[in-house]
From TrEMBL:
The chain crosses the membrane at residues 57-79, 91-109, 145-168. Keywords: Membrane, Signal, Transmembrane, Transmembrane helix. The keyword Ribonucleoprotein does not apply. The gene is Rhbdd2. One of its GO terms (molecular function) is serine-type endopeptidase activity. This is RHBD2 protein. It comes from the Eukaryota. Residues 1-33 form the signal peptide. It is found in: Membrane. It is a multi-pass membrane protein. It holds the Pfam family Rhomboid. Residues 50-189 form the Peptidase S54 rhomboid domain. Residues 227-249 are annotated as: Disordered. GO terms for cellular component: membrane.
Length: 249
């Protein structure tokens, strides 16, 4: 329990930055009370007009306070867990990759899906969260996991949550599905060309802007080297001599 509390004491650096960017991108529109004030949602017409930046900014955009609150919780849980498992550098790299590719896949499928039903513009972090969940479940060694109080096969967890995400305000089902399919493909090794070698991640740890992230007080920087991550976790789990009374089990 002590190690778990220590691991969750400080928020991972990139996860905290994602939360701040979401507040900064959505805050002005929420204060004005107008969804039109959000300039970053992923819209085909905007991309045709040359606003290519929307392929990255749409994950920081929310239409109301409820969807922003849901997005903040999703970022805190899914992005935080993912960053702890892969490191801050790789988390940032894969977040950008999942954001752009999920957005492109959504735009590709939108004309087909829109013939069947109305399609919400892609916005919010949920598609990227589903991509991260797809990676984690595809590579998990667990056979079953607890989901809504029931033990179900791990491979079904993302699909159950995909159905549940339908009830999140302003959530785009096609966009979430694109993120999940992309994450599953990456987790199964189908997108190995998009991977970031651990040696590159370790070098980037020492370069700007990641060297700056390390210095921000109150945030936890996760190293790119798996050996360093294991050593960091071990230092929390193993107490120094004399810190606890000897006890036999």
């Amino acid at each position: 329990r002590g190690s778990m509390a220590a691991g969750w004491g400080r928020p991972p650096a990139a996860t905290a930055l994602t939360l701040l960017l979401s507040l900064g991108a959505s805050g002005p529109g929420l204060l004005q009370g107008s969804p039109a004030a959000h300039p970053g949602a992923l819209q085909p017409a905007a991309l045709r007009a040359g606003e290519v930046h929307r392929l990255l900014t749409y994950v920081f955009v929310y239409e109301d306070l409820l969807s922003l609150t849901c997005g903040a919780l999703i970022i805190w849980y899914f992005a935080g867990s993912f960053e702890r498992s892969v490191g801050t550098v790789k988390h940032c790299f894969l977040t950008a990759v999942f954001t752009v590719l999920s957005g492109l896949l959504h735009l590709f499928l939108e004309p087909v899906v829109s013939r069947l039903s109305e399609v919400e513009d892609a916005k919010g972090f949920l598609p990227v969260a589903f991509a991260m969940l797809g990676v984690s479940t595809a590579r998990s060694r667990m056979k079953r996991a607890l989901c809504f109080g029931f033990r179900v096969p791990v491979v079904l967890v993302p699909w159950i949550l995909l159905c549940a995400a339908w009830f999140i305000p302003h959530s785009s089902l096609p966009s979430n599905l694109c993120g999940l399919l992309l994450g599953e493909a990456y987790g199964l090794g189908c997108c190995f060309c998009l991977d970031l070698p651990e040696s590159v991640g370790s070098k980037l740890d020492r370069m700007f802007p990641f060297s700056l992230l390390k210095r921000i007080p109150g945030l936890k920087y996760i190293p790119g080297s798996s050996a360093e991550r294991r050593a960091s976790e071990s230092s929390k789990i193993i107490p120094p001599p004399g810190s606890y009374p000897t006890q036999s089990y």
